[in-house]
Amino acid sequence: MRRSRLRHLGLAGLLVLGSLTAVGTLPASAADAPAHSPSSSEQPASAGLLDAMQRDFGLTRAEAEDRLAAEREATGIEPAARRAAGKAFGGSWFDAEAGRLTVAVTSDATPSALRAVRATGAQVRTVEHSAQQLDAAKARVDRLDAPAGVSSWRADRATNKVVVDVVAGERADNDVQSFLKQARATAPVTVRTVPSAPQTFAAGTVGGDPYYTGNVRCSIGFSVHGGFVTAGHCGRAGAGVSGWDRSYIGTFQGSSFPDNDYAWVSVGSGWWTVPVVLGWGTVSDQLVRGSNVAPVGASICRSGSTTHWHCGTVLAHNETVNYSDGSVVHQLTKTSVCAEGGDSGGSFISGDQAQGVTSGGWGNCSSGGETWFQPVNEILNRYGLTLHTA
């Protein structure tokens, strides 16, 4: 990137959407993801982020601040609550109404385990299946061949079942019925109807946008030492990448799609990186301070080169998605955030914690929809990369 353009950091003409990253900052690897644990005296978020949450969640400023603080506490206590539950652990999620982490445990949990979970500050719910059993059931469904009418499936902690999403109007399809019959034979299944099939969010060439590979435009996710991470469907290893001004950025060094949807791009030729997610003028640019995983139910926001900044809620972890072109991707996180073509690869962030890169979804930012992302810690671990943090 030309240094004379740095003053335009907040415009669509930058290193695109996502988080960019600066050399010389303290790195946080995926292995030590708890890179930053804000104290209770810290402001929970920037004014811009609080404004976006008020807009997208219908909250007052005080309610947005309280929710972020509660989510940060829930994220912090989840590992201890999981350890306390032991083999009886059935999953966890953030209960927005109660403002607390909920931990599911099986009925054979010992009294001491229950006391230990509650001692962390989490509330407890009894379920039939442990998280390990539910994940094993979902893995059995993963081995089935899904027809186009089945859009995704996941081990849902709150319902304690494998939830299968079927596209509206396709449930009576013979192939869908066959899939559901096989799924029910191998797992505790419940079926949900969704309006349309998910698709990835790459787009054809449009002027003045973040980065290009060939005739595809996508969005930067998060900066790492030597480059940035993004979506795998945006380009293959060895493909060249150009920026908003069509000058050369670097090259895809690794890429995986389908099965996964992640990639990383090396940066050179005068471009550099900083630990920032663009707010696009909707909110102020957001600093990245770590990659602690937000629980189900927590608020989350996305930055992308087409629709810029939008917020929603984490709906599920480890969901398998069957995209409309037949590509199946595993271990994605589902959100209620909208996205559109060109947002692929962009940043998902919760507070100041990096979460993942946009993969795909259904709907749009006019009528709403759902979007999935590839968790960032998996990408860092896969390629041995180090996240840049402020």
From TrEMBL:
Single GO cellular component term: extracellular region
Active-site residue numbers: 233, 261, 344
GO annotation, biological process: proteolysis
Signal peptide: 1-30
Hydrolase is among the record's keywords: yes
GO molecular function: serine-type endopeptidase activity
Disulfide bonds: 218-234, 301-311, 338-365
Record keywords, A-Z: Disulfide bond, Hydrolase, Protease, Serine protease, Signal, Zymogen
Superkingdom of the organism of origin: Bacteria
UniProt feature coiled coil, ranges: none
Positions of the Peptidase S1A alpha-lytic prodomain domain: 129-183
Family recorded in the similarity comment: Belongs to the peptidase S1 family.
Protein name: Secreted serine protease
Record organism: Streptomyces coelicolor (strain ATCC BAA-471 / A3(2) / M145)
Taxonomic lineage of the native organism: Bacteria, Bacillati, Actinomycetota, Actinomycetes, Kitasatosporales
